[in-house]
Design brief:
Oligomer: single chain
Helix content: 55-70%
Structural class: mainly alpha
Distance between the termini: 167 Å
CATH class of one domain: Alpha Beta
CATH topology of one domain: Histidine-containing Protein, Chain: A
Largest sheet: 3 strands, mixed
Strand order of the largest sheet: 1-2-3
Order of helices and strands: HHHHEEHE
Shape: elongated
CATH architecture of one domain: 2-Layer Sandwich
Radius of gyration: 42 Å
Strand content: 5-15%
Length: 186
């Protein structure tokens, strides 16, 4: 009878083995999950100790004041950022005139070129007018203006000036009061 009892006990243990395995895995995962839920609380406590209660408090107050004093609503800001990301943007012609004039007078390739051109904008198309010293300056103004965001096209109406720069020396020639001397055989 002892042998039959041992046999039944062994079969019972064998039958219970899958349940014990499931129980062990479940309890292990629940312990890990419990520790994982404590992790954010520990991180928060560690951050509070590192930064300090005052630092977090003043950071939140600063964020709130910043949100209250923003010049536009969040929706307007998102719309503006989406427009900029799409490559467009709502820039008016007057703003573009100021932007192009500023860039031409401050760009490394054109700030030193005198005189600066007159700038006008019609529906994103920049019109440059005025007089420049040479073709190279004319082309440079056109390239810089075309590279500015918001400019759709450049109409370069700059004219190359013919005025004296003062660098060239005039060669003396005959004047009206001084007739040219022609040597005639006598």
């Amino acid at each position: 009878m002892k042998a039959i009892g041992k046999l039944i006990g062994g079969l019972f243990k064998l039958a219970m083995l899958p349940f014990k395995l499931v129980w062990a895995v479940t309890s292990l995962t629940s312990r890990i999950a419990w520790k994982a839920t404590l992790l954010p609380a520990r991180a928060c406590r560690a951050t509070t100790r590192l930064v300090g209660f005052r630092g977090i408090l003043f950071g939140l107050i600063g964020l709130a004041v910043g949100l209250l004093l923003t010049p536009m609503t969040g929706r307007e800001l998102r719309d503006k950022l989406r427009a900029l990301a799409a490559g467009g943007g709502t820039i008016t012609d007057d703003e573009l005139v100021d932007k192009v004039a500023f860039e031409l007078s401050h760009a490394p390739r054109t700030w030193h070129i005198e005189p600066q051109p007159n700038v006008s904008v019609i529906a994103g198309r920049v019109v440059l007018t005025g007089e420049v010293r040479d073709d190279e300056a004319r082309d440079e103004f056109g390239r810089v203006a075309a590279a500015i965001p918001g400019v759709t096209d450049v109409d370069n109406r700059l004219e190359v000036g013919t005025g004296d720069t003062g660098d060239e020396q005039a060669t003396p020639g005959p004047t009206e009061t001084e007739p040219a001397s022609e040597s005639a055989p006598e």
